[in-house]
Write a structure and sequence with these properties.
With 218 residues, the chain is an all-alpha fold. It has ten helices and no strands.
């Protein structure tokens, strides 16, 4: 456990404030350039939240960067889908994404309408494709797409960073008590093994007595 925290501390010292750019860029690129098909942005935001706890980054600033990057990324994805969506699906990149994924995003969008923009944030693949599909479908931008995009960006961006922050606090707590933490588990396992051994001996002693019992007369 200590090795994990040491690695993260070393990473924070080397990268420093560039983590704002890296985490924000990945959050932005998920839908804007379909980067979420390869590397979900929440991973970067969780790591950024950890470094907020360690004092490398500012928590309010990182939350703001995450939210703004998420909203702008989806808006760019919408614009791309609105302008070149159909040719994009037929391009090499669109074929790499796969027809099944495009169809899944289309069905999800038709089923939930504007709410798909919000709920699509919960799944990496849909988070990357739904904004573009909303643009292809000509979903009204200001009336429908943008309000749901802002709501989703606020929840997802701040939530990922805060989860990473909370993970860092939990990690240090586990590290502090890790020396004595396994003791109750070891005691419990030992107790179960002793109980099984005693039970086995009792069965062995009872079996000869059963064999000596006379069989009932017919």
């Amino acid at each position: 456990m200590r090795g994990v925290t040491q690695f993260l501390e070393h990473l924070g010292e080397q990268v420093g404030a560039w983590l704002y750019v890296v985490a924000g860029g990945l959050a932005f690129g998920e839908a804007a350039i379909l980067l979420g098909m390869l590397l979900p942005g929440e991973t970067a935001l969780l790591v950024a939240g950890y470094f907020c706890h360690e004092g490398v980054l500012s928590l309010p600033v990182m939350v703001g960067v995450a939210v703004v990057a998420a909203i702008l990324g989806d808006s760019v994805g919408y614009a791309v889908g609105h302008r070149i969506g159909r040719p994009l699906q037929g391009s090499r990149l669109g074929r790499w994404v796969g027809e099944r994924r495009w169809e899944q995003a289309t069905r999800f969008l038709h089923r939930h309408g504007g709410k798909a923009v919000f709920f699509g944030r919960l799944t990496a693949m849909l988070r990357a494709l739904v904004p573009g599909m909303a643009g292809i479908a000509r979903m009204p931008y200001y009336q429908t797409f943008l309000p749901w995009n802002v709501a989703g960006g606020l929840l997802w961006g701040s939530g990922c960073v805060l989860l990473g922050y909370g993970f860092a606090a939990s990690l240090h707590t586990v590290e502090r008590y890790l020396t004595w933490g396994p003791v109750p588990i070891v005691v419990a396992v030992a107790g179960v093994l002793v109980w099984l051994e005693v039970r086995s001996h009792r069965r062995e002693r009872s079996e000869p007595a059963r064999e000596r019992e006379p069989e009932p007369r017919q």
